[in-house]
Each structure stands twice: as C-alpha cells, then as structure tokens.
Amino acid sequence: MHSQSTLLIVYHSMTGGTMQMAQAAAEGAGTAADVKVKLMRAVDAGAAEVLAADGYIFATPENLAAMSGQLKDFFDRTYYPALDQLNGRPYATLICAGSDGHSAAAQIERIATGWRLKAIAPPLILCTYAQTPAEIQRPKQMPAPDLQQCRQLGAALAAGMSLGIY
Hints:
Elements (H helix, E strand, L loop, with lengths): L4 E7 L5 H13 L5 E7 L5 H6 L2 E9 L2 E2 L1 H14 L7 E8 L4 H13 L3 E2 L4 E4 L5 H5 L6 H19 L4
Parallel strand pairs: 1-2, 1-3, 3-5, 5-6, 5-7
Antiparallel strand pairs: 3-4
C-alpha cells in the first residue's frame, strides 16, 4: 500500500467544454481510494501545487491552433520553479478542439518533455467541430461518450499512481 498520491488537474475553459472534460477526468480519478484529486483552474494553479503533485492532467481548448493563453500563462509561471524536480512523474493531456487539436497537444508535449514527465496515453483530443464565430463562442455541452473517455483516462492515470506503476 502506497501513501496517498496527489493528481493535479489544471484546466482552462471559456465555453465549458474543457471544464466538463477536466471534471469528468477528476470523477474517474476519484475512483482510486489513495489518490487525492486536485482540480484547479489554470489561473489559480502555481508552482507550489505542481511541486506537491505526483501526477498531472493538463486540459485546454485549442485556441487559434494553440493551447489557451491562460494555460500558457500557467506553464510560464511554473516551468522554471519546477524544472528538474518532476522527472518521471506521469501526465495526460485533454484538448477540446474545434477542428484539429494537434498543435495544442504538441505544445504541451514539448513542455512536459522539458519537465521530463512521462505521458501515460496519447493526448485525448475531442472535437466539437465548431467553425463559425457563433458556434465557437456558444456554451458547449460535451457528448456523454466523450466525457466517458475523459473519465476513463482519469481513472487509468489514478489507478497507475495508486498501484505504483507510475
């Protein structure tokens, strides 16, 4: 039996899609009894929370083929204070995309590589197909099967942390 681990889920959401994805991942991760799940908006998360966590999920909408500015700000504020102190810790990425999502995922992967984090799964990119300004800006309701994928990813990461696999 391992001591309690902490899974930090950092997200930014403007229209609710990414928030629903992060909440679903937190629900899934909450099934591991000895993993504490800390769900935080990117603007509220800092280096202390990053350093105190044993694993991570980073969740963002893809904005203009990039991660959101607030998630980028989170990484800008925490990258150097945490550098060389997170080596080998597990992470996963959730992207709420209008059409593609791979550019945002690649940005997060480069940052995670610098932190020497270990990806436990490919980025989970869920596409809303919102293409017009009105569709992009309207509040999102993510489909249940998409949210189930987020729950499963959160559960898998937390289970692996609980079992000491990562």
